[in-house]
Each structure stands twice: as structure tokens, then as C-alpha cells.
Fold:
Amino acid sequence: MPKKLNIERIWWRSVQPGEFYNIERYHRISGGGGSLYIEIPNSMVHGTLDFLDLTEAGFNSLSSFTIQASVVGDHQVSGPIEFRSKAGGRMRIANQNRQQPNTQRHPAWTSMRNFPRAPDDVATREEAMEYFPDGGLRIYIAKTFDGKYYAGFTKGHRPPHMTDDHPMFELYSNKVGGIINS
Structure:
């Protein structure tokens, strides 16, 4: 049984259907285009940098910033999560396309952990929607008081028994993402 984590904060991002298609499809498509990452919109950048204990100037001086995160529920398994800057004051979690060579998809966000998966030959967003969970898909990174990171995800609708004082309640909101403080 995994040890109980003493969580300080949770960073989360609601994966959009178009992002799901782009991180599941073949990495090279005719005509190019399409992101192979999970975007962190401008509205989440300040909170993300704070969560990572970075200043904007410090982050901008780096080509990327990588954390090592264990899998929630299986602390023996871990992987890198790479944050990069993006035009327009945005950020991204880089290299998340499952079929791309040298992908850095975190092990918590794989079908081995029941993360949704579209077929390798998925060709359109509409086709990918058949594999996108009703009620949505959210990735998250938990940070413990001792500064360790753990990655996980939720899918579907908010559990009916979950009350608004539950630490994960906000994760199921209609927001694009955010930070949950304990």
C-alpha cells in the first residue's frame, strides 16, 4: 500500500479534446501543424511558475525546466515533466505526443495507468472524441510539503459523493486549470 502523501498544493490542467487528439495522433501529419504538447495558457503561467518555485525571469533564462514526478499510487515509478515557454506569454508541457520518438509522456498519463488512448491511426479530432471521456480529462501534479512531485489524472464527471470541502473538488470545475492549496 502506497504511503499517504502530505500534499501542499496541486497544479491541474483540464485537457481539451483538441489537445487529446494532438497528443494521441501520429506525430507527423500531412501539411504539418498541430501541437504535440499540453498548453498552459497565459492565465495559468504565474500560478504555474509559483507552483514550481520559479520567477518569471528565472524561467525565461532557461530553455526549459524539468521536474521529476512519481506516479500517484505507485511511488516507485517516476518520470520527467518538462516545462517550456511558448509565444504569447504561455507555457507548455513539452513532448506529450504518445507516438512521437523520444516522447516524454509521463508514466502516470499513459494507458498502462488507464489514461484514455485513441487508436494509433486516429486521423481527426472527431475520431479521437470517441475515446475522450464523458465528463472530461484532467492531469495534475501534486507537490508535497517536502518538495516532492507526484503526477496523476482524473477522468469523467465529479463523483456524486464528493463534497465541496474535498481537496479535489475544484479539479472537476469547468475551469481550464489552476492551483489547489491545502
Summary: Residues 118 and 131 are 6 Å apart (CA to CA).
